[in-house]
């Protein structure tokens, strides 16, 4: 247990797998491609859920639940959709001891089944917008899996909405994208690049896919959440129609948007270091770990009495006391640093005497005494500071490793020698996109928002480009 | 929409299906046996979840997540378990376009997969007790389905714990049963009979199953939650062992316990009446519905200004304002009565002038004016009163329809003519149990707790009985 983690700089992938398991975030299961999310990982997911769910409800969305199984014929109704998902489907062929007449697909995403239900529920413009969200498990068959990042089954939320006009659907798509950006940056302390996907990378069946992309500790990108304007594609496939104010039958405009347990992988890979995890305080399952220190029984009693006082003062925080006898304080310091608890409180007999504790920050390693009198205030302010500092560090790392280039040789050299994000002019042709991927393994993560003026010459073919794209290796 | 519900007394089953759909609690889906839980039904489930989850965490349990798929060979490891669940399994035979080497079962319950993981995680007595809960979907193939009550897929929580001794496992089993009882009675206002199941009705693989049984509006019983002492059956099947303080390898003692979306069916069937649903205030998705009344635009403005004030005063409650223009106040009264909102606030121009509102209770139909000055206080006290009154009414109904009998002819006559719960001596033989079921369709719901002294002669065979059992027709 006291074995050292593989340093992150030495083998990022090995570090990741080790830290996920050692911190008891998740474990492999005997079912190929499926993981077990352990309590410490699931507590992080619960905090993510709460934080997002509040935002969804504040913007008028309601949760609902749709069937796990989808008739195969439903998946086929939207042509692009089936093309995108067919290779990844898990199929139930037998139920209750009988072979089924029509095989059932375990949902890889729920546009098809929800589209079908929307068609039953929506009658007139009065029923619009219909704003639904679902928290559930989905299954996409995977050959090579990695805990949290790529698993056959994962947990997520999928929002599904229907609107009267294109404009309203587009507004919704961007509203939810902004919620994801706000959540990633302000709760998870993960800076992101916001933009839209290229045609080849968009969701199977969407008109347009928007994304937030984050830079991991190895300088690869990770798609942290997506929001899709589905146009009328699913409305037409599933006959989602409404009577407008003039009593004319119209197709709806729909959207969908999702964030999954993959996001936990992003938190680990953005913030972690050679010591292990670093949890952003706002989402941390444990915000404060208290390690009492004693030698004699008499000291123990005095220290633990003080610990009760600390618990009383800090009842607003997610706090845990590690008073196990079988481990030394030093071992506990390492353990909770590895598990990424933002703030540690050490308290020994001399601290009790001085009516103080010692605070240790996980982000900077800094240690400082704190008088009991102002403990709650100081903990609050330190946690806020750690949250801001973690974002700042991650932002600096992303900025320092982002290159604005217009020369393809340089592009290849940088990707080869340094890695990172490259922003470069792109002519929007799928050929150039594919050629660059073939050469460098870098894909277009998005076409970032906020571009103005001419982009320059396409980094690959030299033709005039209207936009710059963000290129990177990605998980 | 304004069509009348089938009266509950006329056709209970039809009333149930109508009210579930009309109140938009749930809907049928195109997937056989699977339902869609609509936002109003899901909001009730979220309140149930919150209320239980808090109790689970207060008693030291942590949430986690285990795979949806279970290798078929795992289900077979515990002999009774596979016998019980085999006929109901949904089986995935294809994944990612390939036939699987070993078919995967969609979890009907997770003892097998969790048992396997517990065996990896538990090493010594220090790791015990291990107290885990999971919120998830499960699948049990059903031929005849009914919304919420019996569906192929349903949502639930399943607790799974491992302990060092039989006594600790038994204590845990009873602790969780008591949590279910407390939840049912104090949150859902559903009185229950607490006891243990007969051998033939216990969970497949359990040593002993405890249950809470409630009486529905048609006098049938519904098993509202169960808690199982699994003994060492699963520990032996999955090799869940620990080193005790003397360094000896011992098998663990495990438990499991669950409550599902079926409980929503109980809430509907216990409290509902000819007007529709009646939601217990503590769990109601909407506790207070505000119906503003106006004729002219000028009145509208005055009334809606007051409604804002009401919202401000009642921000602690789950409140909704129905200010739709296309429906009359009378239509809205019926609609929200049908959907079971415990308290209605009516406010018209004259109320604005008198600085008051009119309150209408869903449980008694009573209407009363309430001055704005004390509104929040009065709403709080009325909701508390409704909660207590709903429990009292349900308890009286159950008590009035429970018969203590010792004559089998009387037993049959009462079940035939009146229905209800019958408490009668039983010799504990499976033969008598089966014969009574064959005769009357009544099953043993449980052997109630708190029995003292001799029970009398078995109601069926006349042999001396140690216990009395609760017999009833059941969902």
Task: Describe, in plain words, how this protein is organized in 3D.
- Two copies of one chain form a homodimer.
- Chain A has 14 helices and 25 strands.
- Chain A has 475 residues and is of the alpha+beta class.
- The first copy, chain A, folds into three domains: 12-271, BirA Bifunctional Protein, domain 2; 288-385, Rossmann fold, CATH 3.40.50; 402-472, Translation Initiation Factor IF3.
- Chain A starts with 11 loop residues before the first helix and ends with a strand.
- The model of chain A has no long low-confidence stretch (mean pLDDT 96).
- At the A-B interface, strand 2, helix 2, strand 3, strand 4 and strand 5 of A face strand 2, helix 2, strand 3, strand 4 and strand 5 of B.
Short account of what is shown:
Helix content of chain A is 36%, strand content 28%.
List the helices and strands and how they pair.
Two copies of one chain form a homodimer.
Chain A lengths: L11 H11 L3 E3 L6 E3 L1 H20 L3 E2 L5 E3 H4 L3 H7 L4 E6 L2 E9 L4 H11 L8 E10 L13 E11 L2 H21 L6 E4 L11 E8 L5 E9 L3 H6 L2 E3 L5 E3 L1 E8 L1 H10 L16 E5 L4 H17 L5 E3 L7 H10 L4 E5 L1 H5 L2 E6 L5 E5 L3 H26 L1 E3 L3 H10 L3 E6 L3 H11 L2 E6 L7 E2 L6 E2 L1 E6 L3
Parallel strand pairs in A: 3-7, 15-16, 15-17, 20-21
Antiparallel strand pairs in A: 1-2, 4-6, 5-6, 7-8, 8-14, 9-10, 9-22, 10-11, 11-14, 12-13, 17-18, 18-19, 21-25, 22-25, 23-24
Helix pairs in contact in A: 2-6
